[in-house]
Amino acid sequence: MRLLTFSTEEGRRLGALAGGRIVDLAASYGQMSSGAAGLAGAFSDMRSFLEAGDEAMAAARRTEEWARNSEDAVSYGPEDVKIEAPIRNPRKVICIGRLEEMACLSCGIEPSPLCDLSLLTGFSKFPECLIGYGDPLPRPRDWGIEAEGELALIIGRQGKHIAQELAFDHIAGYAPMIDVSTRGHEGHPFLHMCLDASGALGPYIVTTDEVDNPPTLNVTMSLNGDVCQRASTRDLDLEIPYIVSSLSHFMTLLPGDIIACGMLAGRGPSSSGPIELRPGDSVTLEIEGLGKISNPVVADG
After folding, report:
1. What is the pTM of this model?
2. Which of 24, 129, 177, 191 is the most exposed place for a label (fewest CB within 10 A)?
3. For residue 111, what pLDDT band results from cuts at 50, 70 and 90?
């Protein structure tokens, strides 16, 4: 399934893409089940839906299949709604980096029994960082910004001390993410990465039943229509099971948590680093099978 959050004049809704239309899951589930309460509350927002577990996921699949062939389904054309970030209220947004082995040794970091070479590092963003398709990426008045295209995974099942071989069991799905940071503040990662509206996510979450695990998908990032990077999700510095397992030894991963898996090595002018963004630019990230997100850059303040 392709799960998304959208809004109309009547408010924000949880939906699924079906046959080129966006199915209102709560309303259509009510129609399908003849008004029975059932799991309707699970469709209030994406995090609540993921927290409701396998039963809610199965109900969403039944609703999406029913809606494809029913005139009673409540659905919209994509042009009639505003596509939001798929999850607006995650408890955690974790962005992954990689420590080179020599950097680990120079910092006195010993190899960990939990992580092969203690290569994992990262930082957090906050819910206010997340925006959806077409929302503006603001460039602060006093410094520049740059963007990286990343594969984001969304946790669907709570876990702590997750074994690598079980990591994919805890993932609900995947989405493209444009990760924006400031230029020149790399020594202050907390501030460097935490700008408001600095994580464009979506347009939807593609569930794991439609994506190979691990995904091996082509990635294209463009600036103002010109391709500036081509890569593949196989180019991730750190493998997804390693990322999920390693993080879970430090924190409990919860449904709706977002993990951006790190910058992809690739071919193109920006392969050696992030892309600088200026007001008036438009940046687009497309990941094969997961969709495309595009956002304009505007001056902030």
Report:
1. 0.90
2. 191
3. very low
